[in-house]
Design goal:
The protein has a domain of about 140 residues. It has 7 helices and 9 strands, in the order H-E-E-E-H-E-H-H-H-H-H-E-E-E-E-E. The strands form 3 sheets. The protein has a 4-stranded mixed beta sheet. The protein starts with about 25 loop residues before the first helix and ends with a strand. About 15% of the residues are buried. The mean pLDDT is about 80.
Length: about 270
């Protein structure tokens, strides 16, 4: 039987006939991230890591550059805060090809694990997220306790100062000056406390989060190259630490990958 291929303008598209691997909400969010992170270079190319690579110390994005003076030119990343000459951070230099190879190897590893034993990987992800969450929770709880304690102290100081002003023990000039100082600190502490509460609530990982990430991994079986779409779909951010030189002249550098939904895993 001969098949006749219809022109595309005569095609009919029927949506939602199959269960989606990921939700429409997740899909649209990833597409928005991909679009927002695509920054064209002067030569017209788009860097696939754009918006993803961060400095592990200051949190600024790593800037892309090319060493064209070398006999064999190569691309690299460095901390943009350091690059602006502020000297408030170190270079955090990493070659593009080194970063590319490492990230690709990690994604290939997780792709293999998904295919090998999905249930075992799910348990591993949940255990890893538990450790990561507990560690972060302790740190955030300590920061929250400190901020709340200081907030109570400032509130008390402000009340005492008002009493002194009412009783004429301090001048109106000093009252206004200290009042502005304490009120600014109160606002900063209130913001910090609110953000810590929100962060701690949002950090709760569930089995559904791990399952979402595994579902995303299934879309990229045995990846052989990296693309902006693949990176933004699977990865939230990549942090690069400053390199450490050993006594033998060797160079070691830690790179952490934070995956979408599940965060950092070993």
């Amino acid at each position: 039987k001969k098949k006749v291929r219809k022109p595309q303008e005569e095609w009919y598209r029927v949506e939602n006939t199959h269960e989606a691997i990921i939700s429409e909400e997740v899909f649209q969010k990833v597409q928005e991230l991909i679009a927002s992170r695509r920054r064209r270079q002067k030569n017209g190319t788009t860097q696939i890591f754009s918006g993803l690579v961060k400095c592990a110390d200051c949190g600024w994005s790593l800037a892309y550059g090319v060493n064209s003076q070398n006999k064999n030119p190569y691309a690299h990343y460095h901390c943009s805060k350091y690059g602006q000459g502020l000297r408030q951070c170190s270079m955090h230099y990493i070659r593009y090809d080194v970063l590319y190879a490492y990230v690709l190897a990690r994604l290939q590893y997780w792709s293999m694990m998904v295919q090998k034993d999905e249930d075992k990987l799910l348990k591993r992800l949940l255990n890893a997220s538990d450790r990561e969450r507990n560690s972060a929770k302790k740190k955030q709880a300590a920061e929250l306790k400190k901020a709340e304690k200081r907030k109570a102290e400032v509130d008390g100081l402000f009340a005492k100062m008002y009493e002194d002003w009412s009783a004429g023990r301090i001048t109106e000039y000093n009252f206004n000056m200290l009042s502005e100082k304490y009120q600014n600190e109160q606002k900063e502490l209130e913001t910090k406390i609110r953000q810590l509460h929100e962060t701690m609530e949002a950090a709760v990982q569930t089995a559904a989060d791990a399952e979402k990430w595994i579902a995303l991994m299934k879309q990229y079986v045995n990846p052989v190259e990296l693309t902006a779409e693949l990176l933004n779909t699977l990865i939230e951010k990549i942090t690069v630490h400053e390199a450490v030189k050993g006594e033998d002249g060797s160079r070691e550098q830690e790179v952490e990958i934070y995956y979408r939904f599940i965060g950092k895993i070993d």
